[in-house]
Specification:
Structural class: mainly alpha
Low-confidence stretches: none
Shape: globular
Strand order of the largest sheet: 1-2
Number of helices: 16
Mean pLDDT: 82
Distance between the termini: 33 Å
Largest sheet: 2 strands, antiparallel
Number of strands: 2
Helix content: over 70%
Length: 343
């Protein structure tokens, strides 16, 4: 792992603190940045997300979809968790905690927006950070690659309808045009650019040249992630400083769904006799969220200062430390896992 990846938790924590303090101290600067929009899409956020996502998507070889048959049980478990369990469990947890348990302490006019943010957070499986999590748990690279490729292909067609369905169930008006623009900008276009760049590099230098490109672009991608965190927490700086209790309440359903979905995926893989090097990344992919897409869509659909944007930013706040704890549990439980799966 490189320098950035090794200390990722520290950099994320620093950016969160810096962004929050800057947003609280100089809100007018971030209001001005938040107003730079085209078709309700915040351009500074869009640029940073492209710089962050495209290099990571270049790692994805959609030809890896041919390898699905080699790991069909692990892939089946992850698909089940990603598309049939996680979005619906998050909608249920959001409804239970935000509309009932925590309702007396939340601003009533923002509850719908908070729930929408949680749904956006859970409706797309993680792409960018999956390779980091898989590497940390010594996961099978071929499985991780094929799973990410398949999830990205499904996201292109399933994200918008799934979000619309769940927002509809939650009685929230769906702005279809803005949602479609977000899907195009943050899924379709980056996938096309990354696929074309990957194909061009492979034709003009093969895997060795691609590895060199990825090594050079990796720090740029992570730098864009950190800058985006500063920007996003700057947008929400005043809200975070003024409403720490709201942040804590929004974190509760996110934490529960991460541990529930990762645990369920891990146990299902063990039950099916899947190797630990597949079960580990399967659990991590099943639990983690494509928070970059969630944040961008929340900003586009509801605005940079909305409750939905705040909920997705809370997702960013808990994503890295919580996923690192899941990695730790997966690694520590390998002996227990292998006793059953090998027996």
């Amino acid at each position: 792992m490189g320098f950035f990846e090794r200390y990722l938790t520290l950099w994320v924590a620093l950016c969160i603190v810096v962004g929050t303090l800057l947003g609280h101290q100089w809100p007018s600067v971030f209001i001005r940045l938040g107003s730079i929009e085209w078709a309700q899409v915040n351009l500074p956020v869009a640029v940073l997300i492209w710089v962050m996502i495209v290099p990571m998507l270049m790692k994805v070889d959609f030809g890896a979809l041919r390898q699905i048959g080699q790991h069909w049980r692990g892939i089946g478990v992850t698909l089940f968790i990603n598309w049939a369990v996680k979005p619906f469990s998050m909608a249920l947890l959001g409804w239970f905690f935000l509309r009932h348990v925590f309702a007396p302490w939340l601003p009533a006019e923002q509850v719908d927006s908070y729930v929408a943010g949680l749904i956006l957070l859970a409706a797309a499986p993680c792409t960018a950070m999956v390779f980091v999590w898989s590497n940390l748990c010594r996961g099978d690279a071929a499985f991780t690659l094929s799973q990410v490729a398949l999830n990205d292909a499904i996201m292109v067609v399933a994200f918008a309808p799934l979000v619309a369905l769940l927002l509809g169930i939650s009685s929230i008006i769906v702005p279809w045009a803005t949602l479609a623009i977000s899907v195009g900008l943050y899924i379709v276009v980056p996938v096309i650019i990354a696929t074309c760049l990957r194909a061009w590099v492979m034709r003009n230098g093969g895997q060795a040249r691609l590895d060199r490109w990825l090594a050079r672009l990796g720090p740029l991608s992570l730098t864009a992630l950190l800058l985006m965190l500063v920007l996003l927490f700057g947008f929400q700086g005043r809200q975070i400083m003024a409403q720490p209790l709201v942040i804590a309440m929004l974190a509760v359903p996110i934490l529960i769904q991460v541990y529930f979905n990762s645990g369920l995926a891990y146990l299902l893989n063990r039950r099916l006799g899947v190797a630990h090097c597949v079960a580990g990344p399967s659990a991590l992919i099943g639990a983690s969220n494509f928070f970059e897409l969630a944040v961008a869509t929340a900003v586009s659909v509801f605005g940079v200062h909305s409750g939905a944007a705040l909920a997705t930013v809370v997702g960013v706040l808990v994503e890295v430390p919580v996923m690192l704890s899941v990695v730790h549990m997966v690694n520590r439980s390998r002996g227990w896992y292998d006793r059953r799966s090998l027996g």
